[in-house]
């Protein structure tokens, strides 16, 4: 005898789960035909469906609708919470949600797409009403997001562009342009550039901005002074790779007086390598980063960097999601928001000394 109808006379997901020996979550995934069902064995799905049919299970239409039941919960999916890029973004989201009745539910996918899908499914089972995704350079589009958009789930992506959902990103091309212009105006002409991984869109856009400035200013960017970070599964590896690439540049025959690094962690690696070779920053070599993570102002020397308005990105993404929840009847078209960068001038850059 199952546990059905003792209280209500209706078979529940828990009844089906108890009868067939699987968890309620697994039964829900199968009977509601959720994307994660594709990872389950076919015989498992057949058994669950047959059991549900035999017990007379009927889905609760309200439970299947993410928009018809209120949870006052906004999901925040972080691909890697150890990435310093996330800190100020989360602060902006938290400040925006704090005065409201919405509870933020934060989950860290640890750079694993399958973990992302698993956590997202768990969020959906708790009937979250909106979703904010903080993506790093490893982010790839996940099919489940398309399904959420079809369900008109208010979504916002921070840190990566997306053609299918609302996104908030810094204008990377303008940032690259501003970084090289800053070094040029300090008198530097022999400038080394450490670009991001080739496959990363941010890297190509920052490089496009630098290249555009160089052509406008008549500045020659020497190929031997341009290197790329390797592809990696760890977005925090920039320090180690920045150190190694700077050592390689120093071992080359082409002299340079400044380095434009892909991001702040890479810039920290550059500074360490220069220090280990007995070179002073900025007296012997200027260094500029990109992002303006919290450590940038605290390092020694403090890091000149291209500031991303990360807290503002978090705030605006949260506002967009809340607006979508409040006005569910009028879906707002997806849009990409480019936020302007600014150079935060600190101690790691200086004028080219006279020789």
From TrEMBL:
Keywords: DNA-binding, Transcription, Transcription regulation. Pfam families: LacI, Peripla_BP_3. One of its GO terms (molecular function) is transcription cis-regulatory region binding. Signal peptide: none annotated. It comes from the Bacteria. Residues 11-68 form the HTH lacI-type domain. This is LacI family transcriptional regulator.
């Amino acid at each position: 005898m199952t546990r059905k109808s003792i209280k209500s006379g209706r078979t529940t997901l828990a009844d089906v789960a108890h009868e067939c020996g699987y968890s309620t979550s697994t039964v829900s995934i199968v009977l509601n035909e959720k994307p994660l069902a594709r990872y389950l064995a076919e015989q498992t799905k057949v058994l669950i469906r047959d059991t549900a049919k035999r017990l007379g299970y009927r889905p609760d239409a309200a439970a299947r609708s993410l928009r018809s039941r209120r949870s006052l919960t906004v999901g925040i999916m972080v691909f890697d919470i150890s990435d310093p890029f996330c800190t100020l973004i989360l602060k902006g989201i938290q400040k925006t949600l704090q005065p409201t009745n919405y509870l933020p539910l934060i989950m860290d996918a640890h750079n694993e797409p399958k973990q992302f899908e698993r956590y997202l499914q768990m969020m959906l089972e708790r009937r979250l009403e909106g979703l904010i995704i903080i993506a790093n350079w490893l982010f790839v589009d996940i099919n489940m997001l398309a399904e959420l958009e079809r369900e008109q789930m208010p979504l916002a992506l921070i840190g990566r562009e997306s053609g299918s959902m609302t996104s908030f990103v810094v204008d990377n091309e303008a940032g690259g342009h501003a970084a090289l212009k800053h070094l040029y105006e300090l008198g530097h002409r022999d400038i080394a550039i450490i670009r991001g991984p080739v496959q990363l869109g941010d890297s190509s856009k920052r490089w496009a901005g630098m290249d555009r400035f160089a052509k406008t200013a008549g500045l020659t960017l020497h190929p031997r002074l341009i290197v790329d970070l390797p592809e990696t599964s760890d977005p925090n590896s920039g320090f180690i790779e920045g150190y190694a690439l700077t050592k390689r540049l120093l071992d080359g025959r082409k002299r340079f007086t400044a380095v434009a690094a892909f991001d702040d962690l890479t810039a920290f690696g550059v500074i360490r390598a220069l220090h280990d070779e007995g070179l002073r920053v900025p007296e012997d070599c200027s260094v500029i980063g990109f992002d303006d993570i919290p450590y940038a102002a605290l390092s020694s020397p403090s890091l000149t960097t291209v500031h991303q308005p990360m807290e503002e990105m978090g705030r605006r993404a949260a506002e967009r999601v809340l607006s979508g929840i409040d006005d569910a009847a009028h879906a707002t078209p997806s849009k990409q928001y480019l936020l302007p960068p600014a150079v935060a001038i600190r101690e790691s850059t200086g004028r080219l000394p006279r020789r």
